[in-house]
Specification:
single chain; 490 residues; alpha/beta; 7-stranded mixed β-sheet; 20 helices; 16 strands; 17% strand; elongated
Length: 490
């Protein structure tokens, strides 16, 4: 396939005429005469003095720093001079408080410089990590091909990572693999599309769509929040039986987190590919609700699948993303419970629940949990302890599905409706007990009025995000810890 040149990428992404180069002359490094001729030939072929260009430009008026490889310059390889240029650009972006777009296209380490070049990945990774610790966005667009140490360092550290369609992306270059092992690398593995399916990258984006995709992402991770949304006002809640809520929450046509994102948010950027296996039960996205930006984590109902360790690792990525970008986190709970399998046990399901629970309750960014439907077991609990908790009328929370509780207490499942009522699992019970802050009405059931219900829920989320936005982090965290310490006490 044809390759996207570095200058082509620059011109496709940035506002016309806005690019300002940050590149100075490459520092001199020891080299053989043969290597010197190779560099001269690469310069003559590309018009560039190294395999990387850096600078700043604007994306719909926003200042953004850019680092991009040129594969036609010695296969985009990174030696001492190229690495120093990258690090200088990252440090400058950090110092000037700019989002950074990195676009590798590289075979990896420059072999002409050997181990010294190999070690350059350390300082690049360090510079990128410090940029992220300054809570500045680091966005990556992988171009064909990206392999080796570049992919295994600054190519894999993005807050958001997307790739060119059909791009060869992998750690071990296929030519090296074939020479070492005497057989070709399995076809179809090191492709952007396959890595998206396995959640390694977030999306596959053609160059013509990169600029609007970058714009949507920056609207969430960089632009200021919108004005204060209107606070929804709801009338008295109807008295609904616990078992009626359980049955309503299990309707297959009940709107889930995907429906909420599509019809209740703007500037949506879906992350982590499509997800396979139990990871498919966890959705991760960037979005705005009523102008309020957030990272969104949502449990998805997938036929035949329950929440397992991979889904909870995805949840922890969302928590880390919110913390790194200092964005609020919205968590949508809608699960029939944990995966009960050998694979889940061996994959450390209990440990993942524990880590999610501990990380969420101590997270320094504002958090809003939404009890959208079923809230069964440890995976629901792992996404519960937020600053504010919103529940749909038919949302519920329980240590087990009512049938499981009945099996423990009565050794049958026939008493499930009775236990659902006795255990106080309903949203209105949780509101009374001080755990839920707002119950969003269903009239009479979200599945019967999905658009209207989703508008009410989205408006409520927006109002809660705005409420939390200006609270000092230390006060917010202290209040959150006290809130959960008091639950159940007189």
């Amino acid at each position: 396939m044809s390759r996207i040149r570095a200058l082509e990428l620059r011109d496709a992404v940035l506002d016309e005429g806005s690019f300002i180069s940050w590149d100075g002359p490459p520092p001199a490094v020891p080299m053989s005469e043969t290597y010197r001729r190779e560099l001269a030939d690469a310069t003559a072929a590309t018009g560039l003095d190294e395999s990387v260009i850096t600078g700043e430009g604007r994306v719909f008026g926003r200042r953004v720093a850019v680092v991009a490889c040129e594969f036609d310059f010695l296969a985009g390889s990174i030696g001492v001079a190229a690495a120093e240029r990258i690090v200088a650009a990252v440090h400058r972006a950090t110092a000037e408080g700019l989002p950074l777009l990195a676009s590798p296209s590289s075979g990896g380490t420059r072999m002409q410089e050997g181990t010294v070049a190999f070690l350059q990945m350390i300082k690049i990774a360090a510079a990128v990590e410090l940029h992220k610790r300054a809570h500045l966005p680091y966005l990556v667009y992988l171009r064909h091909p990206t392999t080796g140490g570049v992919f295994a360092s600054w190519g894999s550290l993005g807050h958001v990572t997307v790739a060119e369609p059909g791009a060869l992306i992998g750690f071990l270059g296929p030519r090296v693999y074939e020479q070492l092992y005497g057989k070709p690398f399995p076809a179809g593995v090191q492709t952007a599309e396959n890595l998206q399916r396995h959640g390694v990258i977030d999306a596959v984006v053609p160059l013509k769509w990169l600029r609007p995709t970058l714009d949507r992402a920056l609207k969430v991770v960089w632009d200021e929040p919108g004005a204060a949304p209107a606070q929804p006002v709801f009338g008295p809640l109807p008295e609904v039986g616990a078992w009626a809520s359980v049955e309503a929450s299990r309707r297959t046509d009940r709107p889930g987190v995907g429906y909420l994102l599509w019809h209740g948010s703007t500037e949506r950027v879906l992350l982590s590919g499509t997800g396979q296996g139990d990871a498919a039960t966890m959705l991760l996205a960037l979005a705005r609700f009523g102008g309020q930006p957030a990272v969104v984590l949502g449990q998805q109902r997938v036929a035949g699948r329950l929440i397992g360790p991979a889904a909870l690792r995805e949840a922890r990525r969302g928590m880390a993303l919110a913390a790194s970008l200092q964005l609020p986190l919205v968590l949508v709970i809608d699960t029939a419970g944990p995966a009960l399998s050998t694979e889940a046990e061996e994959g450390g399901l209990a440990g993942e629940i524990a880590r999610c629970l501990a990380e969420l309750v101590t997270l320094e960014t504002p958090t809003v949990s939404v009890l959208l439907g079923q809230g069964s077991g440890g995976p629901a609990l792992a996404m519960v302890p937020a600053d504010r908790v919103v529940a749909a009328l038919h949302g519920w929370l329980a240590p087990l599905p009512p049938e499981g509780a009945s099996a423990i207490v009565y050794r049958d499942v026939n008493h499930a409706p009775e236990l659902a009522a006795a255990q106080g699992i309903r949203s209105i019970d949780l509101l009374r007990d001080g755990f839920v802050d707002v119950v969003v009405p269903e009239e009479p059931d979200a599945a019967d009025e999905p658009r209207a219900f989703t508008r009410r829920l989205s408006d409520t989320i927006a109002a809660e995000l705005h409420r939390l936005r200006d609270a000092p982090a230390a006060n917010r965290l202290s209040a959150r810890l006290q809130r959960y310490r008091r639950i159940g006490l007189p």
